[in-house]
UniProtKB/TrEMBL annotation, chain A:
Lineage: Bacteria, Bacillati, Actinomycetota, Actinomycetes, Pseudonocardiales
Biased composition (Basic and acidic residues): 247-263, 332-341
Keywords: Lipoprotein, Signal
Listed Polar residues bias regions: 312-329
Region of interest called Disordered, as start-end residue ranges on this chain: 236-359
Species: Pseudonocardia ammonioxydans
Signal peptide: 1-35
Keyword Lipoprotein: yes
The name this protein goes by in its record: Outer membrane lipoprotein-sorting protein
UniProtKB/TrEMBL annotation, chain B:
Keywords recorded for this protein, A-Z: Membrane, Transmembrane, Transmembrane helix
This protein's record includes keyword Metal-binding: no
A GO cellular component entry from the record: plasma membrane
GO MF, one annotated term: ABC-type transporter activity
Organism: Pseudonocardia ammonioxydans
A Pfam family the protein falls into: ABC2_membrane_2
Name of the featured protein: ABC-2 type transport system permease protein
Domain of life according to the entry: Bacteria
TM segment ranges: 33-53, 73-97, 124-149, 174-200, 207-229, 257-277
Membrane found in the keyword field: yes
Ranges in coiled-coil conformation: none
Length: 390, 284
């Protein structure tokens, strides 16, 4: 081989490597850069109205949840999808109420299929399929009535405590979107900074929800990583339990789930909605009431069955610390028997309201007193203490 | 051979002869065969373990219980973490560093064979070992899964494989998934092989190749477990290796399979370029 060809070949290889490095860099940079697309401006009322008016879209996509809420791990409760971390879900919807949701794990998958009449939940870990009947009162709220009026009402109510703005445009999963920003009014004593929602410019489907706290990183981001709109294969929305799989029926009298659903909402700014947090079915023992409104609304209540966390040890619970997803039929059926031990959570505190434990997260905090009261909200513990005294 | 009798450059050796010589050389080594036989035994041992034990929880192996056709997928996914890269690294270490250590590389470098051809020949040798390893594991997994565990008996003739999403696949659908994961595994191993050959071209100690490949994989595992290094994770080849289990989901999520294949292509290109530069510039 001549030295000329040797040099040439070395040059070719070096050029190949350089081209590759360039391609990688360019790919990296373009993947990061998301220029704000040009969209006609829209006032917040109209944006909210268009979201309410929008037909549910048929779509397939991947949703990522970035959780930096800093929720404590509860002993005895699976940490999956609940403590900090990133998880993804695959979703399909036909736009007519049928849908499919797959929650992959490295070693398995949990799949939910809603075929219009029932919802199936399949878990590959124990190969069980659970049949969940549809709720009758599922469809309610602003879907009926005039969306424009409803949107004006919603935005008007939010404006009492928040600034509502359309903060330009953004790109989510490659689609141009409007950003609706809710920020607390200066007087609000919340630990949250703002809530941002990205709404697809074309279909007006919410694509991303970001909750920002004190830090620069969002405490919670739920949004599409990729999404395609269009008709989906109908076979995705049927589920036949494969032979050999255990089929269970879920009874639908899950009071525990409801309690928790309400308590969970109480930590968000929408707790301002009047009447929220009052459930007529519930006994006086664990009645919830809301103190304050807007961003510093605090849910105050009594730990179920009037027992304090230290008096009862493993049976005590505070709804604020349990996630709706982690509730399964067994634990709600045998209320109080297999409750996770919450007495080890948080740090002991005392104040004019008494003594107890405080649990702080990146998006709010909770107080559980030794005599069985609790308060939770998207606020600091000083506000919670004041609310307990009211 | 030269009818005119005039002196000319030596005729280039044909590709077929070169490859044949290299493959004979690679496949005649007892250690190659020993490794391949041991690899083949792994799916069989897995099948025996699954038949004898209860269904494990929180493991991909749980999918195999009563669902034999998932065995090749699970076996490939588990072996890809260390053993398959080890086999490839041994082949790559022998290919250049081993020959360099024995002094036989000099003859090859001086022979009237272009350096590019020489690199191609060595790469094909490593690739054939990787393909044999993947093929044997797949076939052994298929056979052991079918004969010892069997498809879910209750599914009847139509269903051969129960996916993690709770759907059933026909025999041809199951076979397609198995071929898909085997091809994907081979691409990942080709990337490991290219990097291993590049290391092999820079040293004359086969052990250096082995330790850098295995050490690299272990290092990547350590880096993956450090949350603060998250921006680095997509660039590590091991990050995408969990995607093998994705073929057991329905519909198959292509995203991670494609992404990990592109990352592997990047490693392949970088490793190949370094290997080529080194071999072309190398003095005999």
């Amino acid at each position: 081989m001549t030295s000329g060809s040797r040099v040439r070949r070395g040059g070719i290889a070096a050029a190949l490597a350089a081209a590759l490095a360039l391609a990688l860099t360019v790919g990296f940079v373009t993947a990061r850069a998301s220029a704000a697309p040009d969209l006609p401006p829209v006032p917040p009322e109209e944006l909210v109205a268009s979201v309410l008016e929008a037909e549910p879209a048929a779509l397939a996509g991947t949703v990522a949840v970035d959780n930096r809420l800093g929720l404590p791990a509860i002993p005895g409760v699976p940490a999956e999808g609940f403590t900090d971390g990133t998880s993804t879900a695959r979703v399909w919807s036909d736009g007519e109420g049928r849908g499919r949701l797959a929650l992959p794990r490295p070693d398995g998958e949990r799949t939910y299929v809603r075929d219009g009449t029932v919802t199936w939940a399949y878990d590959s870990a124990d190969r069980t399929a659970t049949r969940i009947p549809a709720r009758e009162h599922d469809r309610s709220g602003p879907a009926e009535g005039d969306p424009q009026a409803a949107a004006r009402e919603i935005v008007g109510k939010l404006r009492d405590t928040s600034t509502v703005d359309v903060d330009g445009t953004t790109e989510v999963a490659g689609r141009p979107a409007y950003t609706l920003v809710l920020a607390p009014q200066p007087g609000e004593r919340t630990v949250l900074r703002e809530v941002r929602a990205a709404v697809d410019a074309e279909t007006r489907t919410p694509l991303e929800l970001t909750v920002l706290g004190a830090g620069p990183e969002p405490v919670l981001r739920i949004g599409f990583d990729d999404v395609t709109f269009g008709p989906q294969d109908p076979a995705l929305f049927t589920f036949t339990p494969p032979p050999g799989v255990t089929v269970e029926d879920k009874k639908f009298e899950d009071k525990g789930l409801k309690d928790k659903g309400n308590a969970d909402k109480g930590t968000g700014p929408d707790a301002a909605a009047p009447g929220r947090g009052h459930d007529p079915d519930r006994g006086g023992a664990d009645a919830l009431r809301t103190v304050g409104d807007g961003w510093d609304a605090v849910v105050v209540g009594t730990v179920p069955q009037g027992r304090g966390p230290q008096a009862t040890g493993p049976q005590a619970t505070g709804p604020q610390a349990t996630d709706p997803q982690t509730t399964d039929p067994e634990t709600s059926d045998q209320r109080g028997a297999d409750r996770p031990d919450l007495s080890a959570l948080g740090t002991p505190v005392s104040g004019p309201w008494g003594t107890g434990r405080e649990i702080t997260t990146n998006a709010g905090s909770a107080l559980v007193t030794d005599d069985g009261r609790f308060a939770a909200g998207a606020v600091g513990t000083d506000v919670l203490g004041a609310a307990l005294q009211q | 051979m030269n009818r005119t009798g005039a002196p000319t450059a030596p005729r280039p050796v044909s590709w077929g002869r070169l490859l044949g010589a290299e493959l004979r050389w690679v496949l005649r080594r007892p250690r190659t065969w020993l490794m391949l036989v041991l690899l083949t035994a792994v799916p069989v041992l897995m099948a025996i373990g699954i038949v004898l034990s209860d269904r494990p929880r929180r493991s991909l192996l749980a999918e195999v219980t009563g669902n034999g056709l998932t065995l090749p997928v699970v076996a490939l996914s588990i072996l890809l973490t260390l053993l398959l890269p080890l086999v490839v690294a041994v082949a790559a270490a022998d290919a250049i560093a081993g020959e360099s250590q024995h002094g036989t590389l000099r003859g090859l470098l001086l022979a009237p064979v272009g350096r590019v051809r020489l690199v191609a020949m060595k790469s094909v040798g490593v690739l054939v070992v990787a393909a044999l390893a993947v093929g044997l594991v797949t076939v052994a997994g298929l056979a052991a899964g079918w004969l010892m565990i069997g498809p879910p008996a209750v599914l009847g003739a139509d269903g051969a494989l129960l996916t993690m999403s709770g759907t059933t696949l026909s025999p041809s659908g199951a076979l397609y998934r198995i071929v898909l994961v085997a091809a994907w595994t081979l691409v990942q191993l080709a990337a490991v092989g290219a990097v291993a050959l590049a290391v092999s071209a820079w040293t004359e100690h086969p052990l250096v190749v082995l330790s850098s490949v295995l050490g690299g994989l272990i290092l990547f595992g350590v880096l993956t477990s450090i949350p603060a290094l998250e921006p680095l994770h997509p660039w590590l080849i091991t990050t995408g290796w969990g995607a093998a289990a994705d073929v057991l989901r329905d519909p198959v999520p292509a995203g991670e399979l494609v992404r990990s294949t592109l990352v592997a292509a990047g490693y392949l290109a970088v490793g190949g370029a370094v290997l080529m530069v080194r071999m072309v510039r190398r003095d005999a």
